[in-house]
Amino acid sequence: MVTDRTRTDVWQGMLDAARLGYYYQALADRHRRKHTVVRFLLIAAAAGGIGAALDALPDTVRLVAGAAVAAIAAWDLAADYARKAAVLHAVHIECAFLEIEWAKLWAAVDRPGADDAKIARENWKLAERLTEVTGRAGAAGVQRDEKLNEECAETAYRVVAGSYAV
Question: Who is most buried in 5, 10, 50, 163, counting CB within 10 A?
Answer without folding.
Answer: 10
